[in-house]
Structure prediction request, 198 residues.
Amino acid sequence: MCEGVHPFFMQKIERRNDMAETKSIMPGDLPEWIQEAERAMANGEIPEPKEVKEVTIKFGKGLVGKPFTSKSGHEFVEVKIPNADKEDHTPWASFVINPKMIHENKFGNGVWMKLPEDGMTRITKPVVAGTREDGRKEWSKDVKEVPNTELKELMEVYKTRNKESLLGNLEDKKKESARQPVKPKPEKTKAASKGTEI
Prediction:
């Protein structure tokens, strides 16, 4: 007997140990996937892990919203998807994702994430459902599932924009600003600049 243990509790410990020794694990007690793995190992087959192809999506930090906790207690973050057309001023679509899946790039001005290539992501976009009697717009959500490869195209639309037109616009803006008359700046007096009081 162990010293310091009450005899009543010592009997319970001995009974529990006896039960553990007599009860052995039966093959039916193991889950099916473990039994299949044991059979494959006995036949000399080693299952190769499936290679998962992933899509890397790169985008700006400004598209990532603040983290929030869902009703189920999981933490998510909303990511906005900019409209492809610059003239389209409708609200942007968005999706939610675990914030641990979003990583900063080494320069600190952008982020990236990896998603399975064959996976799907649910996107929501606010749309106008109608107009109320008081004249205010009534909104609803357009929800759709898109493949992650298409999501990559939507998020990286900035890469497809024509950059030459931006440089051309810059030249036009320079010419336009040169044609504008120069506004004379009012001269500052010493009293006004020093803030002297009368």
